[in-house]
Amino acid sequence: MARQSIEIAPGAVFYPGYLDRAGQEALLADVRTAILAAPLYHPRMPRSGKPFSVRMTNCGPLGWVSDVEGYRYQGTHPETGAAWPAIPQALLAAWRELSGFAFPPEACLVNYYADGTRLGLHQDRDEKELAAPVVSLSLGDTAIFRIGGTKRQDATFSVKLASGDAFVFGGPSRLAYHGVDRVLPATSTLLAESGRFNLTLRRVTAAK
Ligand code: MD3
Ligand code: FE
Description:
Blueprint: E1 6-9, E2 12-15, H1 21-37, E3 55-59, E4 63-67, E5 70-74, H2 89-98, E6 107-113, E7 119-122, E8 134-140, E9 143-147, E10 157-161, E11 166-169, E12 178-183, E13 196-202
Bound molecules: N-(carboxycarbonyl)-S-(naphthalen-2-ylmethyl)-L-cysteine and fe (iii) ion.
């Protein structure tokens, strides 16, 4: 099926309304199941050990974690020690449809934003396969997402990410600085609680 898409910067392609309500509900059920196996936790900043306000967990063979030692990918949950649950089929299907990358994702980072949570401007560069894009899906309340260039000082602009929206960040946008300025309370009825989930699919190791 043809999809509406908008390239908002070179390699940054926005798919508003990628998932309809039924698709969002099905994916949310998958996320809830994953969180039962791999509970959301507050990662800590390298060095300072200060907790992130965003809560996180992962699916897939590898998960992104952060603690006083630094950032890395690892195969197990840092608090339970269990292997991460599998990436839900609906997300693997979205990767096949949107990524344009022949190899499967290895990590799905799940971010949960309660009301008032922000994510500062950063680059995602802990992955070895930077030729693969990052594919993002949003569920729940609308976020004000900010994206700039590959240098922190580059000009930025913001885009609203609503429940069901997908985004692909590839090419020159793969190393763009980005963050979440705020989440707009009560803008979606998808979650029984308030807040927002963002799911990012990533290829971590070199594909060949
Ligand atoms: C652009 N997540 O998990 S999604 C992250 O809404 C992250 O939770 C935000 O930044 C969130 O690292 C933004 C959009 C996004 C995700 C990854 C990117 C944009 C990106 C990687 C490279 C460039
Ligand atoms: Fe990021």
